[in-house]
Amino acid sequence: MPQMPEESQPEYVEQIRTAGEVARRCLALHGVLAAGHDVPREQIVTWLQGEGLWDDVSPMESAFLAAESPTPQQRINATWRAEALFSLLWSLDLISILPSPTQRCDLQLLQRALPPLFEPVTEFISPARLRRGAEIHNAREEIYHIHWRVRDARLRGQPTRPGQLPRMPAKDCEPPVEIFDAGVVQERHHSLNWLIGYRGQNWDDISTDT
Question: Of 12, 19, 119, 170, which sits most exposed with the smallest number of CB within 10 A?
């Protein structure tokens, strides 16, 4: 009797990151964001290394933090990471609500959820706990569909800057599209894809395909 072909094994298994991984990624982003706002990068590197977090800094982040003269684009990218960081802090239940991505996050709320820069981080990492997996997956699915709408509007030649996306027709069963900030959508999609272990990709390599 001929043997049945073996089922092909998936190349990766998506699995939500651990609370410790997420907390450490938040702290790496904390440093990157601070550097984007002109906090001395040498001090940030020293802090991250001293707290045992340097291995949690991605290659692109370490290149920015160690650069003699970061490019303007590197600085812009760093400041946008606030939106990714906000989403991850929400996943740790340190921010109560993940609002619709219509405007940039509240930086004061973000700062209150984080330990002070340059301070010990053990008390931030040790008690870290994630929200329920269903909540995390629902947030990721929501941002996936929003990102699809943003890109579809662009492909149709419709304006896509903040405040310019049209509402969905009333007959559509999904919530109406309000005013989406494409940059916020991109960063949130990136962070939530990383959070669920999308395609087993590392932080710098996360794809936000729709």
Answer: 170
Cβ contacts of 178-181, under 8 Å, gap ≥ 24: 178/100, 178/102, 179/102, 179/103, 180/100, 180/101, 180/102, 180/146, 180/149, 180/150, 181/101, 181/102, 181/103, 181/104
Distance (Å, whole) CA 34 – CA 82: 10
Residue 32: both structure tokens together: 């990157």
Distance (Å, rounded) from C-alpha 93 to C-alpha 9? 35
Please report how many Cα atoms fall inside a 13 Å half-sphere around the Cα of residue 28, on the Cβ side.
Answer: 22
CA dist., res. 31 & res. 137, Å (int): 27
CB count within 10 Å of CB 112 equals: 11
Ranges assigned E (strand) in 95-195: none
Please give the structure tokens belonging to residue 119. Answer: 């301070």
Helices 72-91 and 59-66 pack at an angle, to 10 degrees, of 130
Tens digit of each residue's pLDDT (9 = 90 or more) over 36-89: 999 999 999 999 999 999 999 999 999 999 999 999 999 999 999 999 999 999
172/166 Cα distance (integer angstroms): 13
Write the pLDDT tens digit of every residue in 124-151: 999 999 999 999 999 999 999 999 999 8
